[in-house]
Amino acid sequence: MPPASRTWTVDSIPDQSGRLAVVTGANSGIGQVTAETLARRGAHVVLACRSPERGRAALDRLLAAAPGARAEVRRLDLGDLASIRAFADGWDHDRLDLLVNNAGVAMVPFARTADGFESQFGINHLGTFALTGLLLPHLAASPGARVVTVSSEGQRFARLDFDNLDAERGFRTTVAYGQSKRANLYFATELQRRADAAGLPLRSMAVAPGLTRTNVLTGGANSRRGRLYRTLIRSLMRLAFRPTPEGAKTSLYAATVADLPGGSYVVPDGPFQLRGEPVPRHGERAQLDTGTARRLWDLSEKLTGVPFLPWDHGGAGRPLP
Ligand SMILES: NC(=O)c1ccc[n+]([C@@H]2O[C@H](COP(=O)([O-])OP(=O)(O)OC[C@H]3O[C@@H](n4cnc5c(N)ncnc54)[C@H](OP(=O)(O)O)[C@@H]3O)[C@@H](O)[C@H]2O)c1
Fold first, then answer.
1. Which residues line ligand 1 (CB under 6 A)?
2. ∠ CA(69), CA(188), CA(198), 5° rounding?
3. 87, 123, 293, 298: which could join 190 in a potential S-S bond, CB 3.0 to 4.6 Å?
4. What are the residue numbers of the active site?
5. 119 Cα nearest atom in ligand 1
6. What is d(CA 238, CA 246) in angstroms, rounded to the nearest whole number?
7. Hey, whose CA ends up nearest to atom 7 of ligand 1?
8. How confident is the model at residue 309, as a pLDDT?
9. Residues forming beta bridges with residue 75, ordered by sequence position
10. Cα 111 to averaged position of ligand 1 atoms, centre (Å)
11. Measured in angstroms, how far is the CA atom of residue 291 from the centroid of ligand 1?
C-alpha cells in the first residue's frame, strides 16, 4: 500500500539518481517545482517548454537552486503537432523513465491551435495524448516507466460532449477546460488499461493539484484579459490558492511513491480535494467508464494521427482489445 498521506512529505522522496524524466510546462508553476524537486533528488530532468527563452530562464533558476543538477531544456509546443513530433523525433536518450504531462492552459479565451483544435482540448488533451503516444517506444524501453498526467478536480463537474468536444457548436471556456481535464483522467486510466493488456510494464497515474498559486489564470492568453479580471483573480489567488510547492505534491507523489499502483488518481485529501496532502482516490466515475474512455481514445488517435499500436516493445505484445 502507498504510504498514508499524513506520513508522506517531499522529504520522503527517495533518491532519483539514474532516473530520466520529462516535465512538460516546466518553466512555470507546478511544473517548475516538479522539475526542480526531481532534479534536486538526482533525476536527470528534461524541461519541455514552448518558449526557449522561458525554458532557459527556468533552467538557470533550477541550476542556481540545485547546483550540479542534471537538467536540460528542449522545445515543445503542445498546441502544434509538428512541434510534438519534432520533440519525439529528436529524443536521443536510450529510454525515458518518467513523463510528467503537466503543461496546460485554463479558462483561456477562444482560440485554435496550429492544427485547428480548440486550444484547451488541443493543448491539454490532444497534445498530451500525441506526446505520450510518440514517446511510448522510449517509455517501453524503461523497466519501471511512469506517466503522470495532471488533471484537475474541475473535471468532476464536466461531462464529455462528443458533439462539442472541439467547440464545434459553441464555446464556454469553463466547459472546455473542464472537458479537457476530464479527458486527462480518461486518458491516464485508459493508458493503464491498454498497457496492462499489452503486457507493457508501465504505470500511468492522474493527479489533481488542488487550488494552487501559479500563472495559469493570469499568464499566456489570460494575460491579455482586462485589468478587472486580473485584479480579481490575483486577489482570489492570494486568498484561496495555496503556494505553488503545495500544488506540486500530488505530481511528485505519483511520480515517486514506489508501490503506488498504476491507474491511481492522486488528489489532495482536504475539503473538496482543493487542499491537503496527496492521497490516491479510487472509484472516480471517469476511471470506471471504459466506453467513454475508448471512444475518446479512438477519436484522439484519429484527430492527432498518432496511433499507439502496434507497440514494438518486446513485451507480451498481445493485440489490444
Ligand atoms: N494552479 C491550479 O490551481 C491548478 C488546478 C488544477 C489543475 N491545474 C493544472 O496544473 C497544470 C500546471 O499548471 P500551473 O497551474 O502550474 O500553471 P502555469 O504556471 O501557467 O504553468 C503552465 C505551464 O504549461 C505551459 N504551457 C501552456 N501551453 C503550452 C503549450 N502549448 N505547449 C507547451 N507548454 C505549454 C506553460 O508555458 P508558458 O509559460 O510558455 O505559458 C507553463 O509552463 C495544468 O495542467 C493545469 O491545468 C492547475
1. 24-25, 27-31, 50-51, 54, 76-79, 102-106, 123, 150, 152, 209, 211-212, 214-216, 219-220, 241, 247
2. 100
3. 293
4. 177
5. 31
6. 14
7. 152
8. 61
9. 49
10. 16
11. 29
Give residue-wise pLDDT tens across range 45-96: 999 999 999 999 999 999 999 999 999 999 999 999 999 999 999 999 999 9
Residue nearest to atom 25 of ligand 1 (CA): 25
Q: Which ligand 1 atom is the nearest neighbour of the CA of 30?
A: 16
- Give residue-wise pLDDT tens across range 165-214: 999 999 999 999 999 999 999 999 999 999 999 999 999 999 999 999 99
Cα(103) to ligand 1 centroid in Å equals: 4
Three-state DSSP class for residue 150: strand
Q: How far is the CA of 248 from the centre of ligand 1 (A)?
A: 12
Residue to mutate, 151, 215, 242, ligand 1, most ligand atoms under 8 Å from C-beta:
215
Show the domains of the chain with their CATH numbers: 15-301 (3.40.50.720)
Q: By the 8 A CB rule, do 221 and 119 touch? A: yes
* Separation of alpha carbons 35 and 295, rounded Å: 33
Give the three-class secondary structure for 36: helix
Distance CA 25, CA 100 (A): 9
Spatial contact of 154 and 173, defined as CB atoms under 8 Å apart: no
pLDDT in tens, 241-251: 999 999 999 99
Contact 58, 27 (CB under 8 A): yes
Read off the pTM. 0.95
